[in-house]
Specification:
Helix content is 32%, strand content 37%. The chain contains three helices and six strands; from the N terminus they run ββαββαββα. Strands 1, 2, 3, 4, 5 and 6 form a six-stranded antiparallel sheet that branches. The protein is globular, with a radius of gyration of 14 Å. The termini are close together.
Length: 114
C-alpha cells in the first residue's frame, strides 16, 4: 500500500487510554491485552509513550489492502471505539513526508484512502 506515493510499512490501531492509563507501560499493555482477549482479537501491543497503545493485528505486509485484513481492521476498530476514548488507524511509512513518518486517521478517513 502507498500513502502519498510512499510505501506503508505498518498499519496499526492506536488506542488512547486517557484516564484509564497507568504510569506503568506494562500495566497499560496488560490492560489492552486483556481487552483483546475478552474480544477474541489476536494481536500484539506496545505502549511506547503516555496513554497511547499500538495494537498490531496479524497481516501480510505486502498486501495491506486485501479484503480479509481490511475487514479485521475495521471490526477491531469498531470494537475498540466502543471501549476506548479515542481510536485511530496509524500508518507507519518507509520514509518521512513533511517531517513525519506516521499518520493517524479515523476508520472513515482510512477507508477513503484505500
Amino acid at each position: 500500500m502507498l500513502y502519498r506515493g510512499v510505501f506503508v510499512d505498518e498499519i496499526n490501531l492506536l488506542v488512547f487510554l486517557k484516564e484509564e492509563s497507568s504510569k506503568s507501560c506494562m500495566k497499560n499493555e496488560r490492560k489492552v491485552l486483556q481487552w483483546l482477549k475478552d474480544n477474541n482479537i489476536r494481536a500484539r501491543v506496545e505502549n511506547p509513550i503516555d496513554d497511547a497503545v499500538y495494537i498490531w493485528l496479524p497481516y501480510d505486509e505486502n498486501n495491506f489492502d486485501n479484503k480479509t485484513y481490511i475487514n479485521s481492521l475495521t471490526e477491531a476498530y469498531q470494537k475498540a471505539e466502543s471501549h476506548f476514548k479515542e481510536v485511530k488507524i496509524s500508518l507507519h511509512l518507509s520514509k518521512f513526508l513533511d517531517g513525519y513518518n506516521e499518520y493517524d486517521f479515523t476508520i472513515q478517513e482510512f477507508l477513503e484512502l484505500i
